[in-house]
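Hey,
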Amino acid sequence: MTVKDFIRDIPDFPSVGTTFRDISPILHNSKAMEYAVEAMYERVKDLKPDVIVGIESRGYIFAALLAGRFKVGMATARKKTDVHPLDTVGIDYAIEMGTSRLEMMRDAIKQGERALVVDDLLATGVTSKAAADLITMLGGQVVGFAFLADINYYDGEQLLAPIAPVVHIYDC
């Protein structure tokens, strides 16, 4: 079994010349999910994180499962939150067609905590970098980035590698 077997390519979406990588076949298959999470864990286990930070929305899935595997807590990095009942800290960042915002609860990261940032796919890396910037703002240390797959069409790994190790299971 490989992760590649469970990533569906959808050509020309959302625009002509772009291939959308659909990970829902992994989510629909318990053995594929188990394999993917174990493969991610094996690549990051030596980083010894204190907290796993999942990026909304599909990063939450893998982050939660990795947090359970590490027996540590999980923090969430939410995209474009408008209202939150607790104190949050946010950062605006540039994306392909404008800007976006990523927020975390102010108490999600404790001073000196070692954080592993997790998302499903690595493309440009700007959202993961924003998460890393938030973790640093909150007093944490980013020890790594983990992704199910690297699209390899963009330079996301080059953006993130100076911050911490970047790992993924599959190259698209």
